[in-house]
Design goal:
This is Putative DNA modification/repair radical SAM protein. This protein is 37% helix and 9% strand. The chain is of the alpha/beta class. It binds iron/sulfur cluster.
């Protein structure tokens, strides 16, 4: 095999990293290099938004694997041991140099680093930690660092990752334990959750220490995870339930949902087709309902099909809930509590906050609500205003057809 230069390695290892969706930087500690101190900043500024990922996600981070070689054989993964792909490997120093050089050229705001498992989980984790350590301590790098950690590694190493990174993540991979056992036989759900539990404790300890002592060492501000959707038999109901459990038990910042994409030379146990992308989108909407709209996992589960356990694809889960539980509508925008307003399809959190502030000074009319939303027409069956009260609109049998988005003709050459 010919020796790869840096560009060749980058091409392989950036491409191999594109399957990982869990790399958003929201919630990171604010840090910058004003006053000539250090290099980098966790906050974006104009001009720093380039990407090496062709799928459009995570455009301002250098998102790479340390290596795409792996001793594990997870069926859904293109980098698995039995996969016939070109392999490459960076040294820790090469990743450090690449990050700094891209940073100084304003290509990126930070680094997202993951890896296949080489040698052993501990050895791989040591290499990942060494990248972050060197960036922070040798180069005083103040940009964003997100490290993917390996649950089987020594907990001390996983904790060391948290000391240098802004965000750490441990992928649960699949929504159900049978799915994980079938598709990633070397991984173990209890070990993954054990590592998440330890990380939660370390994050909380660090927050507590920083509240008490101003100079307590910094630690990652949060952890996240990713679930692959559509590779196993897990239904949307299973996925929403697992996500709720993970948020609750481990205080995750985010659960990312990544629609399974068929890979070359795929194992026979995998489905041949990827699930509709809209499914991923609906799961993100359901996730937002739980995190920002006071929906419980049970509320979301009620919007799934009782037989298939799937969320509807043609309408979003909030509208599905409203159509199913019409007795909760219409909601009076001048009197209803915040929780009831948040249930109104078409009212986002910003609009609800706007309504709550505006109604302190006057009674709201339809045109006032209209100024806070994209389309007041869709709200008509669900709200009461000073000058509007729906008459039997909410009970109409064809209400779904009235408020559901119209089907869009797909572009023949679209993605
Ligand atoms: S351990 Fe990670 S890199 Fe290795 S095969 Fe499994 S998913 Fe892929």
């Amino acid at each position: 095999m010919s020796r790869l230069d840096m560009a060749g390695k980058l091409e392989i290892l950036a491409d191999a990293a594109k399957y990982d969706a869990s790399c958003a930087s929201s919630g990171a500690q604010k840090r910058d290099s004003r006053g000539g101190k250090g290099i980098g900043s966790t906050t974006a500024s104009s001009g720093i938004c380039h990407s090496y990922t062709p799928d459009g996600r995570c455009i301002s981070l250098l998102k790479i694997l340390l290596t795409n070689s792996c001793i594990f054989d997870c069926h859904y993964c293109i980098n698995r041991k039995s996969s016939n792909v070109r392999r490459a490997r960076f040294t820790a120093k090469e990743v450090v140099d690449l990050t700094l050089s891209f940073y100084k050229r304003n290509y990126i705001e930070g680094l997202f680093l993951s890896s296949g498992i080489i040698g052993s989980p501990d050895y791989t984790m040591e290499q990942i930690v060494e990248v972050a350590r060197s960036l922070r301590l040798d180069h005083d790098f103040r940009g964003y660092i997100h490290l993917k950690t390996i649950p089987d590694a020594d907990p001390m190493l996983v904790e060391a990752a948290g000391r240098f990174a802004d965000r750490v993540s441990i992928n649960v991979e699949l929504p159900t334990v049978p799915g994980l056992t079938k598709l990633a036989p070397e991984k173990s759900a209890p070990r993954i959750e054990g590592a998440m539990g330890q990380m939660r404790l370390a994050i909380e300890d660090s927050k507590d220490a920083r509240r008490r002592y101003r100079h307590a060492p910094r630690f990652a501000t949060g952890q996240s995870t990713q679930m692959i959707v559509g590779a196993d038999d897990g239904t949307d109901r299973d996925i929403v339930g697992r996500a709720a459990h993970l948020y609750d038990r481990f205080g995750l910042r985010r659960v990312y949902y990544s629609a399974f994409s068929p890979i070359p030379d795929a194992s026979a146990v995998l489905p041949l087709k990827r699930p509709p992308l809209q499914r991923e989108n609906r799961l993100y909407q359901a996730d937002w309902l739980m995190r920002f709209y006071t929906f419980t996992p049970e509320d979301v589960a009620q919007t799934t099909d009782p037989v298939t356990g799937m969320l509807p694809l043609d309408i979003d889960p909030k509208l599905a809930w409203a159509l199913k539980f019409r007795e909760h509508f219409p909601v009076d925008v001048n009197r209803a509590p915040k929780e009831a307003l948040l249930r109104v399809p078409g009212l986002g959190t910003k609009a609800v906050n706007g309504i709550l502030s505006a109604r302190r000074v006057r009674r709201l009319r339809l045109e006032d609500v209209g100024r806070l939303t994209v389309s007041v027409k869709k709200l008509l069956p669900f709200i009461i205003c000073e000058d509007w009260r729906p008459v039997r609109l909410t009970d109409r049998a064809d209400l779904k057809a009235l408020v559901a988005p119209k089907p869009v003709q797909l572009d023949l050459f679209g993605a």
